[in-house]
Amino acid sequence: MTKFAVLDLAPVREGATPGDALRNSLDLARHVEAAGYERFWLAEHHNMVGIASAATSVAIGYVAGGTKTMRVGAGGVMLPNHSPLVIAEQFGTLASLYPGRIDLGLGRAPGTDQQTLRALRRHPAMAENFPQDVLELQALLGPLQPGQVIQAVPGTDTNIPLWILGSSLYGAQLAAMLGLPYAFASHFAPEALMQAIQVYRETFKPSAQLDKPYVMVGATIVTADTEAEAQYLFTTPQQQFVNMFRGTRGRLRPPIDDIEDFWTPAEKMRVSAMLACAFHGTGDAITAQLAPFIEQTGADELMIACSIYDHSARIHSYEILADVQRNLNGKSHA
Predict the structure, then answer these.
(1) What pLDDT score does 285 carry?
(2) How many domains does the chain have?
(3) Cα–chain-centroid distance for residue 134?
(4) Residue 27 CB: number of other CB atoms within 10 A?
(5) Contact between residue 237 and residue 307 where contact means Cβ atoms under 8 Å apart
(6) Could you tell me if 114 and 124 are in contact, meaning their C-beta atoms sit under 8 angstroms apart?
(7) In a domain, 332, yes or no
(8) What phi, psi does 297 have (nearest 5°)?
(9) Which residue, 25, 64, 92, 128, is the most exposed by fewest CB within 10 angstroms?
(10) The pLDDT of residue 110
(11) 139 with 270, same domain?
(12) How far is residue 220 from each of residues 7, 121, 124, 169, 306, measured CA to CA in Å?
């Protein structure tokens, strides 16, 4: 049985505000909670006008406070941008307010550009301390030890589940060594997916948090009632990736009639490679596409990113996917 989860970047649409984006995120979270999704994650990005989740712990608190049962967390916090103590205090506060519902996914990348990294008062070399910082954070969230001078308040003994996020063998090896669940960012960087999963599973060492490997894989999925509508809506994430290559990141763009008029052949090739783990179509078509993908990866959980311009269409896409999950897991429709 493969669980389904949501990765939300609180996208800011053209003509909208960050406040609109965050309110839409909460509304989406309420819908997917009702539909039976396992968890809802927000991600840390900085200096990007199209993403409203920069203050990730604040956004998580907003979503957790407006939902009731679903797990809410970070997918992820870019740990080199922060001291482990500050993150332990932030997420310890969240876990104290919403016990048993908070996840903490950790990434090694800065989630921004070099100039913004300097504005964060961090140095690129901080990423080299990532394994030690993960261990320090884990200790701060664990039981208070004899003689321990520094503790996170709140945070100590909350034992918040940690995840390692990555798109290369580095994260797979670290997650395996520490005995932590591993989430692979195949929704935008699929190249090393199968090799990373293999390395993680083959070298995994059980830990107090996890006794056997647990793999989450990312996928960009857009569903709609017709194939034509799904293809039309899918042009929004396609435009996002093209604009990233062009250095013209902006707010989430509305879909367009013909993506071929928007990108060059070279851009199409690059975007298609990055979206190798992307799927669009009707619910039946998505079921047929996801079944071999899940079988190939053996994913325990599928983290779904869905950049759709129209908020109601985005909600509907995730609702269709809830039916897809039931079909894939052999359940009848609710």
Answers:
(1) 97
(2) 2
(3) 18
(4) 16
(5) yes
(6) yes
(7) yes
(8) -85, -20
(9) 128
(10) 64
(11) no
(12) 9, 33, 29, 21, 6
Q: Is 320 exposed, middle or buried (0-12, 13-18, 19+ CB in 10 A)?
A: buried
pLDDT of residue 78: 92
For residues 59 and 175, what is the distance between their CA atoms, to the nearest angstrom?
Answer: 26
* φ, ψ at 147 (rounded to 5°): 80, 0
* Rounded Cα gap, residues 334 and 322, in angstroms: 10
Which tokens hold the place of 64? 């957790």
The structure tokens 């932590």 sit at 180
Average pLDDT over residues 241-269: 95
pLDDT band at 246 (very low <50, low <70, confident <90, very high): very high
Note whether 48 and 132 are same-domain residues. yes
Q: Cα–Cα distance between 178 and 185 in angstroms, integer?
A: 19
DSSP-H helix ranges across the chain: 18-35, 56-65, 84-97, 114-119, 130-141, 169-178, 193-203, 227-246, 265-274, 283-297, 311-328
Report the b/e string of 255-282 with b at 16+ CB within 10 A: beeebeebbeeebeebbeebbebbbbbb
Which pLDDT score, from 0 to 100, does residue 112 have?
A: 65
**In this predicted structure, what is the pLDDT of residue 93?**
98
Whole-number Å distance between alpha carbons of 130 and 146: 25
Determine the structural domain holding residue 240 and report its residue range: 216-334
Assign residue 76 the CATH number of its domain. Answer: 3.20.20.30
Is pLDDT at 71 greater than 70 in this prediction? yes
- The arithmetic mean of pLDDT across residues 36-40, rounded, is 97
* Listed residue (65, 43, 62, 70) closest to 54, CA to CA: 43
pLDDT at 153: 97
The span from the CA of 193 to the CA of 160, in Å, is 26
Q: Specify whether 148 is located in the same domain as 221.
A: no
**Residue 208 in domain:** no
